Amino acid sequence: MRYYTLVLSLFLFSCKDTLESVATTVTTDSYTEIKKALSINPTAVENYAAQGKPAYVNKDNTAANPITDKAATLGRVLFYDKNLSINNTIACASCHKQEFAFGDTATSSLGVENGRTERHSMRLINTRYAVEAKFFWNERAASLEAQTTMPIADHLEMGFSGQTGRGNITSLITKLNGIGYYKELFKLVYGDATITEARMQTALAQFIRSIQSFDSKYDIGRAQVANDGAPFPNFTAQENAGKNLFLTPPIFNGASERIGGGLGCNACHQAPEFDIDPNSRNNGFIGVIGSNQTDLTNTRSPSLRDILNAAGIANTPFMHTAVPVTIRQVLNHYNSIAAAPRNTNLDPRLKPNNIGQNLQMTPAETDAMVAFLRTLTGKDVYTNKKWGSPFL
Which whole number is the average pLDDT over 93-100? Predict the structure, then answer.
């Protein structure tokens, strides 16, 4: 018996390399379709879950859907895949472009068959680090997860609307089931190849929340001081002046004219995350792109981080109407708010004494504000391949 045991042990030892090679081949072969179409290594995906954040950033809205490397990888593929549109021409990334801080320079983004979005495409920066409440400009989505597939089901945007003979989300799932790399990716993430809208939403939301920017001049300065109000040692005098104007509330007289203090931007766009206060109401822009309609519901805003590129040029037009195209035009709007009687949803912070504010900004203050907002721009988010297209 000992003889046979010894022989068997020697045989298994001699076959060790062969058996390991077979096991490796099986594992590798299970990702054949991924390797054909995507620049992704399924056995060594990018780091999305453990990127880290500055100590002074306290917000994090991922509790209900924690980021994992594998699910965010699937989300990245879905985000860039034009198969998610009815005619294979539009992806999420068509309207949210990495080179523009995941926004769009067009007034309204191009959809399927030359359709156009009804509102301007938002930048997607630091979505994770915000008081997450509702989504879209008019907050019609109850969560980021719900938001992710609504453009896919929109008749103008990505077309799976179920209208005029088009398929719906169920049709899309059938379509994706016929694409080999999705079977492999869903199995990689969820343990089986079943594709559902809920799984798509989970993965897309994780990828979007993974997109972060914390390497700006502001971050370098903020890491060296105890709080935002302290002078940043790496800032110019003008940049520190702009920061103080941003943070400090204004003092108004009875006519709502500023007679002291700062500009009060921080009341709605809170540092250091610079996300929008979810209790904010309309900011004075009440139009609708391409029509004469009035829309008072638009209240949400993306983070002010990377609002400008490294050259100080706006990454996208501003507001849901895309009417202001420069940051100076935005500041001019807030400088003098016209409290139109028909705007029954104007944020009360913009109409002290129930009169539209007049900040009476000087040219020097405007220049200081522009200088400060430029410090919120990072570098890595524009070029890091883990947020870029995964397609070969």
Answer: 98
